[in-house]
Amino acid sequence: MRPAAAYGITIFGASFWGLTGLFVQNLYAFGFTPLEVVTIRMSLSMILMFGIIGFIRPYLLKIHLRDLPYFIGLGVVSIALFNWCYFTVMEQSSLSVAVVLLYTSPVFVAVISRFVFQEPMTLNKIGAILLTMAGCSLVAGFFPLGSMNLTFSVLVFGLASGFFCALYSIIGKFVSRKYHSITITAYSMLCGGVFLLPVSGIENNLAPFAEPMAWIYVVGSVLVSTILAYVLYTAGLKYIESSHAAILATIEPIVGIMVGVMIFHDELTGWQTIGILLIFSSIILSVFSKKMKFRRRKRGKPPFHHHGDAM
Prior knowledge:
Layout: H1 3-18, H2 20-28, H3 34-56, H4 68-92, H5 95-102, H6 105-116, H7 123-140, H8 152-176, H9 181-200, H10 212-237, H11 242-248, H12 251-262, H13 270-287
């Protein structure tokens, strides 16, 4: 895959995450709680992916048992717990604070990748991280002259959401070159869905499923902002550094803001516009970094040697 294509599918995947609010906000109107929405998304994604893949390409469902902990980490920690922490901040504080604290994730990814994958901490990367943090703060309205009082629990849950979100890029890297992105996404949804179903209490709130419009938003949330988003982003991880992928993912709040402006008629302030430009600048700086390494797979030589039986 060419570098431009790798960066493109990563940005598209993150953009589809940005469409989440388009579906989720409408699901809240039907009486679903945040935890129930996450459970619905992951459970239905799990069912759809295993059903379709099992019928069309069953060989993609073969994994090695020794890699199961990675899928549990992706599904339970990087998706389920991340969403729970993220929505908890929204509930206790505001969406703006949640977004600002969530997008500390590129910082976590860059630091962890430096020690785990020996990815270089270049000046371009540091600059992109600083631009990202500044841009997200402006987009969310946290600066300038922010006077928000953060409680300790909001701060902890917010930083935890950024940390758990960052772990998707880290954990996903261990399996992204061994399995197809569809395989990784399917098993991540399986692990997350199995974890959430018994704890969400969704069985006590089945009435909204009788509404046809609720299913339209459910299907959109599952197909677009869950399955396609994770498949494309995970596919990009195979070819680019985790820290760069995390920086590219900051296109998500931009898409979310644009959806709010164009669909829900939210007003975009001058500071938010500046923030969006800063985030775009960080993406450009990340993509065109001179020291960025793009991994190409050689034909006929698998990136990893597999041993043992497949699941």
